[in-house]
Design brief:
alpha+beta; binds zinc ion
Length: 378
């Protein structure tokens, strides 16, 4: 049975509605057997070229690698060419970057490379191309662990207007005015963004945030994007003979308040904190999280759900639809929650693939954020 999937967006840059709408189907680069078109909206980053390549792959039924190397260049060679072209575009040795201080270095996250200069650097990745980095914005980026942190790679050159310079990154923006500290807007801080990170150290802001674009799946509310993705996930699972039901989605602040208060009065605060999020701290309040169950309810909301067909299927395939298992086994010291193989969190296909292939299993580790084993003392 072929498996429909959402292709990981291949290249960043243009963010027009046209490009958003281009994402119809795509052969996933890790799944050359995918032949069933799936119409879905994924992240904003996708190019005409990658759409054409994916379409060609579908027509030929072959692996992306067969058509993806027109210049037969390695990633390092592509990077070197792109970095040098960007350096020349900026003025070469006459640019603000100054002279190179070393050779190109590769091996960064997601296949990235960089070259440093006297006054900054140029960093390249397959998804974002070659972008320059310098000055106060670069210093601020560094404090967030460069591309390894929550900002990711820059997606454009710094641009200045009205005395403010800003640079866009994969998941945020840094702005700077002379004589003032840089300001950093992180997608992980914004509950409206699918990359938002909510944990026991990071409550929603505002704490009574409520999403507006809710849709129902199996009687559970989710924001539109994860709702559409969950339906595709369910269809793909069904094609493999596996039923995946949604049993809990969006929970308003007030509902979480009542739930948590009930646990607290029944079991005490320590036990309540172990089994329930405090109001304002629950991923379910973002409308991006869903608890799933098997058709027969076996091992519902228990760790043994991982061994059911639905749990096993989700663990293996959820990332293809933009979900991650948010509270994996053995990570409670990082996430603050015991293993919850039923709790899926929508982060978008791009980020889900990145986390899945990163070698770490939590958003905290992926973004180099502090572990959040418990609530701060009040
Ligand atoms: Zn949950």
């Amino acid at each position: 049975m072929s498996k429909p999937c959402l292709c990981r967006p291949a290249r960043t840059g243009l963010r027009t509605e046209v490009h958003r709408r281009l994402i119809t189907v795509t052969a996933c680069r890790d799944r050359a057997t995918a032949k069933t078109p799936v119409t879905a909206r994924t992240g904003p980053r996708f190019s005409v070229l990658s759409a054409a390549v994916c379409a060609l792959v579908l027509i030929l039924g072959g692996a992306p690698a067969a058509v993806a190397s027109p210049a037969a260049q390695t990633g390092a060679e592509r990077a070197e060419t792109a970095i040098d072209r960007e350096y020349q575009r900026l003025g070469g040795t006459d640019s603000g970057l100054g002279r190179p201080t070393g050779a190109e270095t590769c091996g960064l996250r997601d296949g990235g490379c960089y070259r440093n200069y006297e006054h900054g650097g140029i960093v390249w990745s397959p998804a974002t191309g070659a972008q320059p980095s310098w000055g106060a914005i670069r210093e601020a980026w560094a404090t967030y662990s460069f591309e390894n942190g929550p900002l990711g790679y820059p997606v454009a050159s710094p641009a200045c207007s009205g005395g403010t310079c800003s640079q866009s990154f994969q998941r945020g923006t840094i702005s700077w005015r002379p004589a003032e500290p840089a300001t950093v807007d992180l997608d992980i801080d914004n509950p409206k963004n699918t990359a938002v990170v909510v944990n026991k150290e990071r409550p929603l802001e505002p704490e009574d945030y409520a999403p507006e674009d809710l849709l129902s799946v199996d009687g559970q509310l989710l924001r539109a994007e994860p709702a559409e993705a969950l339906i595709l996930l369910q269809q793909a699972a069904a094609a493999d003979g596996v039923t995946v039901r949604a049993i809990s989605g969006y929970r308003p602040f007030e509902t979480q308040f009542e739930l948590y208060s009930g646990y607290t009065s029944q079991y005490g605060q320590e036990q309540a904190d172990a089994i329930s999020a405090r109001p304002g701290y629950s991923e379910h309040q973002t409308g991006l999280a869903v608890d799933i169950a098997a058709a027969d309810g076996a091992c519902s909301l228990q760790a043994c759900f991982a061994d059911t067909p639905a749990g096993a299927w989700a663990a293996e395939n959820a990332h293809r639809f933009g979900f991650i298992v948010r509270y994996p086994a053995g990570a409670s010291a990082v996430t603050g929650y015991a293993y919850e193989p039923w709790h899926l969190r929508f982060v978008g296909v791009d980020l889900a693939f990145a986390v899945h292939s990163s070698g770490v299993s939590t958003l905290e580790e992926y973004f180099h954020l502090p572990a959040a084993p418990g609530y701060p003392a009040r």
